[in-house]
Design brief:
alpha/beta, three-stranded mixed sheet, 20 helices
Amino acid sequence: MTQPCLALSMPPSAPLAHPQQDLSRRFRDHAAPVSAPDAGAVFWRLGTFLPAAIGTGVLLWGFLSWFAADGTSWAEALLAMLIGAGFFWIALTFVTVLAGSGALFSRMLPDEGPIKPLDVALLVPVHEEAPWDVFGNAAAMLERLAAAPGAHRWSLYILSDTRDPVRAAQEEATYAAIRAGLPDVRVWYRRRVQNTDRKVGNLAQWVAQWGGAHDAMLVLDADSLMSAQAIRSLADAMGRDTSAGLIQSFPQLIGARSLFARSQQFANAIYGVALAEGLARWTGREGNYWGHNAIIRTAAFAASAGLPHVRGLRGRDSLILSHDFVEAGLLRRAGWSVRFLPRLRGSYEETPPTLIDHVLRDRRWCRGNLQHLGLLGTRGLHALSRFHMFHGAMGYLLSPLWFLLLALWAVIGVSADRSVINYFSPENPMMPNWPEMSPINHVWLMVTMYALLLAPKLVGASALIASGTPVSRMGGAWQFTGSLLLEIAVSIAYAPILMVQQTMAVFSALTGKRFEWTPQSRNGAARPFAAVLRFHAFETLLGAVLLIGMATGFVSLWLIPIMASLFLAVPLSWMSGLDLPGSLSTPQEVRAPLVAKRAALWRAKLKSSVEGSPAQ
């Protein structure tokens, strides 16, 4: 794994064996202690999955009874099964939010026992990022840790894969500035000659060459920011729990300015708390990893989670893209527990500023998550680790499923003589004999669809307030109510566009279409109108087709919200980047954390220092 570096300011090597895992054979790390089964997690799993399964069964029974008015055909049965498949995942989310809402009212007992002091490396992989932002966040975290270091020892590594020579020079200048500004902290920087295997290879090289010097590594993204209290709490939790291979925090979104980003930030802060709480309860010690803001036992990761290349759809070996889910599964396979601490506060990240930026990132995640379907047969994985990977893939496969169902709804039409294709013709017995779509049935379908999507939001928001979070932390009662309604409106407006974009991403991934990996955009720079139009041309065309169908009376008017979203995809996408500071307030914004304030000051200082340097 050792590779030459163009820029190197690193400590002496401390090699650690980091072999690639054989996914066709079971593996047990003998250093992993044997732990008793988690009976509490089993109880929560039954209490979550069973109601979701029962609810899905009731829905299937209702649809099959409706279809059975004139006998159920194979096509009607298939449609009912598709509806049931889509409903189960929505039901599972809803029950998880319900479970988490109830759990929010319970007091979580603090961990007890002695804490083993750890030598912790904070790792920040970087690829073509604004260096003052990355180093500014790093400086703020190091500054706060230095103010109250505690029992643990800290070092920070900036691990660059940047190829642009201008950016690389800025990174080196920023590193020099941070070393001058914080002379007493341990911060290191290196840039690889080749960015082999991207982030996976970047971290793997560090583990193999320097990992032996550290008990644990706290993996961060370029936009990650964590308070000293959050970092220490993660290290304390791992210092107490000798069976923990990985402990994931709950990253909350901060720093959003645009309409789209602020709506995502609001949803994360208001609805995500109950969802995270419920998820932590039923995952137990078989949790998941989201690739950042998590602490990992270095020796366990080195021994258990080395990723091989896997065979792709076209028969070529390829990199595992969504590495985090797989690494968590391999750690659990080896005997290490993977935990999630949803109540640990002070863990932050940013979100893409515009709809297009979100979609571009989503395309990468779609490829990686669908790749997991080919890894479900990995020998020795825990059943819940397989479920995490399958669930991640289903998050994208549901979009083409819903797209198909909505297309069927559109072509069925509004009556026997107003249907795009006449399913009701007795002269064509090969076609299914659908139940008549009366206005009442259209109403019930629309109400059911939006109720399923909105219920988790309303339950999660209610639980957050009822469990003790004052509305003053969201700007007051009236502003909170307005923010809630605005976020719901934004989510309804963008959901059909995202459904179509994810359907296109799934089709592109499954057909093996060539994919260009682009760096993450974080500044939300406006795109030319022609570029936005090209990006959303397909949605606009679909919206126009639905509009014509409604104008001619062949498509139900109850599909107007979906038609409007698709037809107006271009202006909606443009609006997603509008700056709306002050709206959709969250607790993390109304009372900004100290580390965020310090990071903003460091970012400005470092940017001024680097851009004002004669070398620039």
